[in-house]
Amino acid sequence: MKPTNQDRKMQIVDSQIHVWADGESTGHHRRAPITGAVLDVEMRQAGVDRVVLVPPLWDPHGSAYSLQLAQRAPERFSVMGVMEPDIADPVAQLHAWQQTPGMRGIRFLFNAADRLRSLHDGRFEAVWPEAERLGVPVAMLAPNHLQIADDIARRFPGLRIIVDHLGVPRGATGPSAFDHLGELLALAAYPNVSVKAVGVGDYALDPYPFRSLQDTLQRVFEAFGPERVIWGSDLSRLHHPYRQCVSHFCETLPWLSKDDLALVMGGNICRLLGWS
Questions:
Q1: How far is CA 29 from the centre of its chain?
Q2: Which one, out of 59, 93, 135, 244, has a CA that is 20 to 30 A from the CA of 157?
Q3: Which residues form a coiled coil (predicted)?
């Protein structure tokens, strides 16, 4: 068995957790809010040192709450702001967020018709070159539409792009969850594209340590290399213990070296976000 993160004294950074204190969660997320206090307990139990907070859509004050936590404890929390599809001036929002302490990147949701319409209408077209110029990383949730990341990565080679959830559609499990694997692996041709492996155990039909995923994950690592794979949990939707989400990568993937794990489990996301 591999040494644990405590043995290695490796910093564990979770690249995606929703926190909220208001509103009711939707879909496959847990119903009890993950407040700052709840997250503190969860992090201690799982051995997680830092977290990138992604404001949930269901909390009307989610962005302010995430930023509050990040500004109180900048060594533990940072934020990726979610760009709404109907925002009037996305470039102005980009500039405002760049000046906001704790905010270190932008997330775009291209997983519904209205959000895709905003993209195709050209609402965000000016964002890509400006984010490239400013060095602001962009995460994209685009299941079934990975050609979006392909197009933007090709046109803006200096823009740092993160493909969320390995491109897996919401709720997909079993072998069909990765029907798009060829399309995902093709994105590895762009050096500016990284992939976020978030809560991947939930895509498996078998229990921990999710042996059915080993071949798929190994192919992802072979394509992108350990320098462009980012671990995360998406804690609010996990169906297994948070600690298992950590140990799945740290202790059960035999092809990852100690140095690889240091990158995947925190080094890569901190580098992309400029979070030293």
A1: 15
A2: 93
A3: none
DSSP 202: G
Helices assigned H by DSSP within the chain: 5-8, 36-46, 62-72, 90-98, 113-120, 127-134, 147-155, 181-186, 214-224, 242-252, 258-262, 268-273
pTM above 0.90, yes or no: yes
Half-sphere exposure of 136 (CA within 13 A, CB side): 27
What's the mean pLDDT in 139-163? 97
Task: Decide if 64 contacts 47 (C-beta within 8 A).
Answer: no
Torsion of CA 140, 142, 146, 147, to 10 degrees: -90
Identify the band that residue 8 occupies on the pLDDT scale cut at 50, 70 and 90: very low
By CB atoms closer than 10 A (0-12, 13-18, 19+), residue 75 is exposed
- Sequence-distant (6+) residues with CB within 8 A of 239 are 201, 202
